[in-house]
Amino acid sequence: MGCGSSIAKKPRGSDKAIRAAMIIQNWYRSYSARLKVRQRYALTIFQSIEYANEQGQMQLSSFFTFMLENYAKANEKERELVTRIFRNDPQEKDREDYVKMINVPESYNGPRLQFPLTFTDIDLLIEGFKQQKILHAHYVLAVLFEAKKVLMQMPNVSHIKTFPSREITVCGDLHGKLDDLFLIFYKNGLPSEENPYVFNGDFVDRGKNSIEILMILLVTLLVYPNDLHLNRGNHEDFLMNLRYGFTKEIMTKYKLYGGKILKILEEVYTWLPIATVVDNEILILHGGLSESTDLNLLHRIERQKMKSVLIPPISPDEEDMIDSRKNKGGGRKGRTSVILSEQLLQHEWEQLVDILWSDPRGKRGCYPNKSRGGGCYFGPDVTSKILNKYHLKLLVRSHECKPDGYEICHDGKVITVFSASNYYEEGSNRGAYIKLRHCMAPRFIQYQVTKSTCPRTLYQRVNTIEGSAIRMLKERMIARKTDLVRTFEAHDHTKSGKVSLGQWAFSMESVMELNLPWRSLSAHLVNTDKDGKINYMSSFEDVLIQKPVKEVQSSIIETLCRYRSDLKIIFNVIDTDHSGLISVEEFRDMWKLFKTHYSVHIDDSQVDELANKMDLNKDGSIDFNEFLKAFHVVHKFDTK
Amino acid sequence: MAEDKEWESSETTVAEFHKRIKEAFEVFDHESNNTVDVREIGTIIRSLGCCPSEGELHDLIADVEEEEPTGYIRLEKFLPVMTEVLLERRYRPIPEDILLRAFEVLDPAKRGFLTKEELVKYMTEEGEPFSQEEMEEMLSAAIDPESNSIHYKDYISMMVVDEN
């Protein structure tokens, strides 16, 4: 306290030098603080866009329900489509059925696994992946098949012990970032009987090496089934993978066999355990808790019925409706009841969504997770209540990126651990893992993967992160340009092209629906004149949406850009054989449903016209990836 | 930042300050319960364009802390104090020429540079000493690796450009 005054009394250097040093220190601390705030703002942008996307993803579930209803009342052919999409044929095949047609050629120089697997296969695999080799589809399928068999034998909740002297390592989200997994193994050793691990979900998506991570984890599981524990995360979900990259990774790496891999992967996910309990004291699960979390129920739930968070159970009422509609149309009763017997009850499904999707907050109570659109926010009182009820001391969860790789909240009763460093951008955050030991406080180990050899300055790091955050934000803004401009103009009575900072921030908040510090961000998004007025069109000067076809109107372009990821998933769901093609007819049908459900006001004829134009070779089918790729945002002043 | 022009001392100014303070506060309010860790309050204050010294910062924190310090600062207490700081325009940023003169004081021979050792000595032993982390962070951008010294005039202009 008041070190300034104490120094004045007892000077060490000359008074002048001390004052000079203080000025420099004072200036530098402010400089550095401002940069750190900018870094934090950038993280806030990344996170709020990430959650807004998740919200969009979760909204798809109501779209799929809507689609199911609409298709169910439609004709036979369309009903076929519904069954194809939402039902899995039970596949009780043996391994040979999966791999017999797929031979590993002599020329293959990647890792060759030998079943039954041993620890040498783990080494082989890691060595191969370090050399950027791709594991052959034959082995991928065999590993997935064997892993499924082992996982099926496991209970929903794994109970493990640190006693007598074993430390257990807990890792959070890896998200396809293989370098982080290698770094953890390098620092902490490979999993083994003496070195048990819990991986707490979200192994896949986002990063480039999801399949490699999954293969290492599953092979290790097969070698050490009692020492490696996998909890399901919200990204171990085949419909999430469609948006967040893993499906694409598999199709790119495995082309022909990709579809087959995806099929069995979908099942492997459903068999992953959902939680781990250490020493009857520490509960480890991916997301969090809710007021109604019932561990007894979670112990006996049929977890494999949870196919995707986007496919909620159909309520019995709806079943009646669908059946009666079908009867009217001379339908085939019983089809939906087959679906029903394969699904969870509504409250069971909600229990699972809550533990996979929830986030802790400081506010008491339990309320819907509005930013993610799924699961809930739970307060310290909920944590205490649930932990006490089951005589637990601590909840370890993942699911949220934290600047330091971990964070402790709720009076030390909740730990978040996140193991993907540089999650949003190079330098955005550290990763961490936790070491749990009997009767001892958890230890945290932090790390950060770096590619560059020379250390970058704070300014350089912040600049990179901020730059890409602002880019992302601008892409979202351009997709809402029409609405934004309309709102700005409503404030701009004199048509001067300018609004006050307050008005601008208010407009941004109401249209963008992102909880961001707009006032502080304004300097990066718009030009401000010398009177502090904002030239609101200036944020659109350096970005535009590519138009694949000249004549189309901006409203349709913006809509397609805005819902691009949602449409991609919907198309992918229809395209069950992963050919990348859907018929023009399917496209039109889907668009109509989409338009109704999302209240998009666009003339059908425009979309028809666009669809015809996109059917380049006039064979009645559309390559929807190409179609959607066409609507991308261009940054005009990109130097790259 | 355009604080200067928002200077109409009307109620709208106060309301606008409130919003800016809340925005800055919320970014550090990890548990969304209108509190922040006391260790981050300095960053929040500085992000609002203020440059208090460590001593001044301590005094400010004492003003907004609970009677029984909890390690957390509540928005309720922070908001009125910070609004006053902004209205009274306390802790103004240090102008470039003052900063340059400060470096010149530490370089009496007028060589135009300080050696790395000199800089470290002044920054970690005089005034309100830097922590090791702060020192390393400053050095990473300040020191020219070839001469192992800081050419402060270039350094200052580089830092000013960086920020704008």
Automatic annotation (TrEMBL), chain A:
Classification via InterPro entries: Calcineurin-like_PHP (IPR004843), EF-hand-dom_pair (IPR011992), EF_Hand_1_Ca_BS (IPR018247), EF_hand_dom (IPR002048), Metallo-depent_PP-like (IPR029052), PPP_dom (IPR013235), PPP_phosphatase (IPR051134), Ser/Thr-Pase_EF-hand_contain (IPR012008)
Pfam families xrefs: EF-hand_7, Metallophos, PPP5
Domain EF-hand, first and last residues per copy: 562-597, 602-637
Reaction(s) catalysed (UniProt annotation): O-phospho-L-seryl-[protein] + H2O = L-seryl-[protein] + phosphate; O-phospho-L-threonyl-[protein] + H2O = L-threonyl-[protein] + phosphate
Residue ranges of the TM segments: none
Assigned EC number: 3.1.3.16
PANTHER family according to UniProt: SERINE/THREONINE-PROTEIN PHOSPHATASE 5-RELATED, SERINE_THREONINE-PROTEIN PHOSPHATASE WITH EF-HANDS 1
Protein name, as recorded: Serine/threonine-protein phosphatase with EF-hands
Organism: Echinops telfairi (Lesser hedgehog tenrec)
Phylogenetic placement of the source organism: Eukaryota, Metazoa, Chordata, Craniata, Vertebrata
TrEMBL record, chain B:
Domain of life from the UniProt record: Eukaryota
Protein name: Dynein regulatory complex protein 8 isoform X1
Organism, scientific name: Echinops telfairi
Name of the encoding gene: EFCAB2
